[in-house]
Structure formats: C-alpha cells, structure tokens
Amino acid sequence: MPTIVIRNAAIVDGSADRAADPIDVLLADGLVAEAGERVKAPAGAHIFDAKRRIVLPGLIDCHVHVVAAIGNLAANAELPNTLTALYAANTLRGMLSRGFTTVRDLGGADQALVDAVERGLIEGPRLVICGKALSPTGGHTDYRDRHDRRPVDYYPDQLGALGRICDGEADVRRAAREELKAGARFIKVMASGGVSSPTDPIDALAFSFPELQAAVQEAAHQHTYVAAHLYSDEAISRALEAGVRSIEHGNLITPATAKRVRKAGAVVVPTNITYAVLAREGAEHGIPAASLEKIDFVLSAGLTALETLREAGVTMGYGSDLLGGMHEHQAQEFELRGRVLPAHEVIRAATLDAARVLQLEGRVGIIAPGAFADVVVVDGDPLKDLSVLSDTTRIRTIIKGGRVVQDS
C-alpha cells in the first residue's frame, strides 16, 4: 500500500459553509497519518497536488441494498445466490465509482460480501451490514401476495431476500441472535408498512411492542443498536419508546415526534431519492403496480420531513435506498436535499453525521489522523453546486483505505 501525500487539500466535510484553508494530508498504512501545514513527504511517497480542486472525506451512504439486483423484490428473493452475488459486485463497484467509500446495508448483504470486499476479491466500499432485516408475517419483507400461503423458511438462505420472517418475542430473539452471530453489526426491523411489499399498508404497524423490545435488547447485549423501517408518526413514536436508535425514512414525522427523536439521541436516515426515481422509472424496472400506487403517499411528505427534522436539531444520515438499475441515481439525493437544506448540511449527512449514524465517529467521514484514508477529489465546489457530487465526470480521484481506486 503506497504512502501518499496530498498537497493543497481544501477540505469540505460539511462542518462549515466554506472550504477549509488548504493543508497537506499524509496517508500511510491505510489511515490518515497527519494533516496540517507543510507535511513532510516520506521518501518514495506518491504526491498528489489538489490545487484548484476540492477534497472531501470518502462519502457514506447510510441506507443501501446491495443485493437488490432487480426492482421487483419478490422476484429478487428467488434469484440464484451466485447470480445475486455477481449483481451485488457490480452494484458495489458502481457505488465506489461515485465516491462512496463506506455504505451501510439495511437488509440482504451477508458476511461473505463483506469478506469479498475486504480481501479485494471485488471492488467496492466497505460494508456495514445488518444481515437479513426482521419482518413479521405480512410485513415489509414478506413478498407473498394474498393468495400465496407457501412458507418462507427459505428466505434466510436466499442472498436476494432482503429480510426474514419472525413472529413472537422468542422468534425475534432467535432471528436477531442468528444475524448477529453471522456478522451483523446492528439489527434491522421492519416496524411499519412499506412500498415494495404487497400486503402491508404504509401506515400499518408491524411487530408487537414486546417484539420490538426483544430486538432492542438482543442488539444491546452485543453493544449495538436497532434500525427500523418507519413511515408513520405513530410507528416512529412507538419505535422510539421501544429503544430503536436509527429511524429509516421517517417521511410522516411530526414536529413533536422529531423533538422526541432529538431528546432520545436517535438519528434519522431520510431516503427521498428512491421515491422520486420509483415514481419516474419504477414501472420499467419491474416494480408492481400495487407498490407504485403507494409512492405518492410518501413522496410528497419527504422534503417537508427534512425541514421538520432540521428545525428539531435531529442528526440526519444520507440514504438512497435504491433498487436494481436505479442504483445509478445514488448521488442525486444530494441535489434533492439541497432544495430545502443548506449545502454544507447536505454534505455533512454523508460525512460527519453519517459516521455518527454508523457509530464510526473519527474513523470515517473525516480527514483527520486515525481515520481511514478515504478521500475524494472533485472539480468544482459542491458547497456552491451540489450537482458536482452527482456528476461522475467531475470526480477526479477516489482513494479508499489508502489505495487509489480512481485517478483521472
């Protein structure tokens, strides 16, 4: 792994509304070793001059599904595991090419994919996984229609299944323990209805309160947390009371509940780009009509929720939640949020605040000694034009863990 010195690094990490004064950054052994003025370059170091460009920490997407090869998630769950893995490798490669050096998978990815990335067998961002999301019968990852009574015991063994079914407190505990044993870094529960599943209305509640508490307790035993798929304010409020820490989506949150989120120290990961793309392209990607009909209900509320959360001082992570061929729109969430939020706050959701969501503060989302050597160099200032981050032609250099994966 080469030693790298980046000269004249004007860093944008979302902590301010302007780029920091240029400094030098030394990357060694996969980490940021030094950052400051006039850093001495070790013998043989590769020198990058970032003059007239902007330097960011590697970007973080807090809500992805790397095994979602196709938009129809019921069909995705039936794909052969080998084919799903090859699709996932392609998806991961694309994410890294957009400057995302760390992603948190919210259902489906397994430890084998984590290992494949870490061993260099496939190119991609580092993966933080929950394994299979937990869902009750008829919940958000139960893809059977109303006439299908087949058991779904095979879901845990299907790489393309984003979740698994568990009912009752004991079954939830067993499923959570199995996912943690298999490498999950946190637990994901489907605690309300969703768009992609056929039999659960958006405003439906999922899991009993004791079931939610069981998942939270099992996560706490392993010193980690629960993330929950949530739309309605009622579902969000109930999940907070059960101890859920990471609220995914949260489109229909009210100001009062947003204040409770802030007081509880919980975080929210909005995912507005997925609804915008589903509304525009969902049908051509195989999204069932029943799912498309649900989109308007959450799409219009998404941007309002961003303003509500900001006013309450809630930490927000960047999330895309895209499926299949729609993954290419991953970075367009920046521009979408920029319609209602200041640019530096939008960027911070994919850097400093995203690190907090992942509980990796000081390790990712920042260019400082001890952090992973993840760096993105772009043409143009994203603080003035967020489209810089969604235009891959303007992403000049990508470094992940001290290794240059793109330089143009």
Compile the SSE list and pairings.
Elements: E1 4-11, E2 23-28, E3 31-36, E4 46-49, E5 54-57, E6 59-64, H1 73-76, H2 81-97, E7 100-105, H3 111-118, E8 126-129, E9 133-135, E10 163-165, H4 169-181, E11 187-190, H5 209-221, E12 226-232, H6 233-242, E13 246-252, H7 255-264, E14 267-269, H8 272-281, H9 289-312, E15 315-316, H10 333-337, H11 343-348, H12 352-357, E16 375-378, E17 395-400, E18 403-407
Parallel strand pairs: 1-4, 1-5, 6-7, 7-8, 9-10, 11-12, 12-13, 13-14, 14-15
Antiparallel strand pairs: 1-2, 2-3, 5-16, 16-17, 17-18
Helix pairs in contact: 4-5, 6-7, 7-9, 8-9
List keywords for this structure.
single chain; 408 residues; alpha/beta; 8-stranded mixed beta sheet; 5-stranded parallel beta sheet; 18 strands
Descriptive report:
The protein starts with a strand and ends with a strand. 54% of the residues are buried. It is of the alpha/beta class. Strands 1, 2, 3, 4, 5, 16, 17 and 18 form an eight-stranded mixed beta sheet that branches. Strands 11-12-13-14-15 form a five-stranded parallel beta sheet. It contains twelve helices and 18 strands. Strand 11, helix 5 (209-221) and strand 12 (226-232) form a beta-alpha-beta unit. It is globular, with a radius of gyration of 21 Å.
Tell me briefly what this model is.
By secondary structure, this protein is an alpha/beta fold. It is 31% helix and 22% strand. It contains twelve helices and 18 strands.
